Every structure is written in C-alpha cells, then in structure tokens.
Amino acid sequence: MKAQIYILLLAIGLSFGCKKSTTVDVITDGHYTGVLVVTSSVKSVPEITPVSVTLKDGKFDITASGNLKPAAVKGTYTLNNGIGNFVAEGVWTADFDWNRILNGEYDVKSSGVDLTLKRRFKEQANFPPAVSYATLSYEYILKRTD
Question: What's the mean per-residue pLDDT of the chain?
Fold first, then answer.
C-alpha cells in the first residue's frame, strides 16, 4: 500500500514539474496589433509607437501610428529556427532611424496569439577605449486580433 502511495505522489510531482513550451517555431498568419518599443541606453523611458501588422503567406504589411517614418512598409519574411528574416520593399529618405523599418533578422517568439519580434544586431568589437556608444533595441510586441 505504501509503495502505491509513493508511486502516486511521484507521478503527481512529475506532472507538476513538467511544463510544456508556450513558444512555437511558426508565425501564424493573421492581423496583429501592438507596439514598437525602442529602448536606448541613454534614455530612461523607451519610445513606444502603436503598430498594426498583417502577416500572410510569407508577406507582411505594417502600418505605424503617429509620426513614425515610414508610416507603412510591405515586404516578405522567412522563418528558420526561431529567427525571422524580414525583407522590406521600398525606397526611403535618410531623415529617420532606418532600424525602425521591419527589415533584417529578428528573434521570434510566438504562442500563436502573442508575437514578439526583437531585432538582432551583429556583435561590434574593437571600440576605441575613449569612445562611448549608446545601445538601442527594437522590439515589436504584438497580439493577434483575428
């Protein structure tokens, strides 16, 4: 009888100890709304811009609210091992931060409803010791609305 109780308690303990992953290695087609969060190491408050994104069949269409340049971007994307490669189509002027364009490599976290895209940058090395550089991060935090 004691052995059965121990086995039962062990089974219950193992079932609570196992947690299923909530992320998937796919981007679900659909319409998403959310924000682009730009964080800077020299500013204490991040810049937040509302965005609307449509993803369908490897193509994206993004629209930003407010004074963001460009206000709309279209392009294509692929996903491989949790890294999204976005290729924006268009020509832009040089009077804004081009990192705000959904273009390049992004770490992708998706639950099927929530989608986070965080911009990946290549490692920089050999900075002169007397030079200080600000670090920036660009992250789309989205929720599927359809």
Answer: 81
Please indicate, yes or no, if residue 123 is contained in any of the structural domains: yes
| Residue 6 CB neighbours (<10 A) | 10
- Kindly report, residue by residue over 24-43, the tens digit of the pLDDT: 567 889 999 999 999 988 88
Cα-Cα end-to-end distance for the chain: 53
Return d(Cα 31, Cα 5) in angstroms, integer: 50
Domain contains 48: yes
Radius of gyration of the chain (CA): 21
CA atoms lying within 13 Å on the CB side of residue 76: 3
**Claim: this prediction has a pTM higher than 0.85:** no
